[in-house]
Amino acid sequence: MSAAAAPLLRVEGLTKHFHTTKNLFGKPTHTVRAVEGVSFEIGHSETLGLVGESGSGKSTTGRLILRLEEPTAGQVFFEGQDISRLRPHALAPIRRRLQVVFQDPFSSLNPRLRIGESVGEPLRTHGLISSAGERREKVAALFRQVGLDPRFMDRFPHQFSGGQRQRIGIARAIALGPKLIVADEPITALDVSIQAQIVNLFLDLQEEMGMAYLFIAHDLGMVRHLCHRVAVMLRGRIVEMGSTEQVFANPRHPYTRALISAAPIPDPEREAARRRIPYDLVPPPPGAVLQEVEPGHWALSAA
Ligand code: ADP
Ligand code: MG
Known about the structure:
Layout: E1 9-22, E2 28-42, E3 47-51, H1 58-65, E4 73-78, E5 81-82, H2 88-95, E6 98-101, H3 115-125, H4 132-145, H5 162-174, E7 180-184, H6 192-209, E8 212-217, H7 223-226, E9 229-234, E10 237-243, H8 244-249, H9 254-262, H10 268-273, E11 290-294, E12 297-300
This protein binds adenosine-5'-diphosphate and magnesium ion.
Magnesium ion binds at residues 58-59, 185.
């Protein structure tokens, strides 16, 4: 397949097992199957929501795509190229087009560096600026793009609110003009009113710049407004995947139904009538496979 015809991202049978609690002789005694045979695609300018309970393997999936974690098995194709086993020096040019936004951008910012320098750092390491003046100019433009006053450039990280820090994290992620951003619970830690603003910023930037997102979330509320497609993860496996309309209108897997029932509805009358559907977080049976229940909509079979 040529790179142009390929989806922007394709993961195939992605698997990550962690071996923990080594005994005295270094023998692993416990295996965590964090990600188990996960496959999906993301198209150019598309947003895929990856949702599921805490511990279901969402972050590990994101980290495998970003190559912050080595896969136990499976592949990651980015722009048609298998990047799952590339060495660090071969990964460097790909990092420009594949970026990340974390839940807490504060932890990845140097507390002693003025914020303008932190945001400008990726530009410098990739040789895209030649002077301090040029850096200030480019960083000011990035600040405006994410809705921050460029005068804040000389402040330090602790002087910003949670929402502003997330805007800073996004400014860093878009600095190099990426094709895909893995956003790992970027709004989870924010107040509800701020969450909507950040979701709108993601939407606006996608319209302006055309990048794709893997948007990781543990609840379905904002996912509905932001994502074109949704994949539901349970115990390391995808149990359902389809367009956002398909999954919300016609959820097939009982775990998806439980997740949807747990999300608050903005309409007060319907919210008052909402009943939570309980679900036991039992792992899917090993023999279960994803079956297409309608075009583009997949759900895990019972066995
Ligand atoms: P999520 O992001 O959906 O909350 P994670 O991908 O963080 O889930 O974790 C999936 C599982 O893998 C959890 O059981 C977690 O404890 C385990 N896990 C994640 N990272 C490690 C690690 N470095 N070592 C051992 N276990 C890990
Ligand atoms: Mg996580």
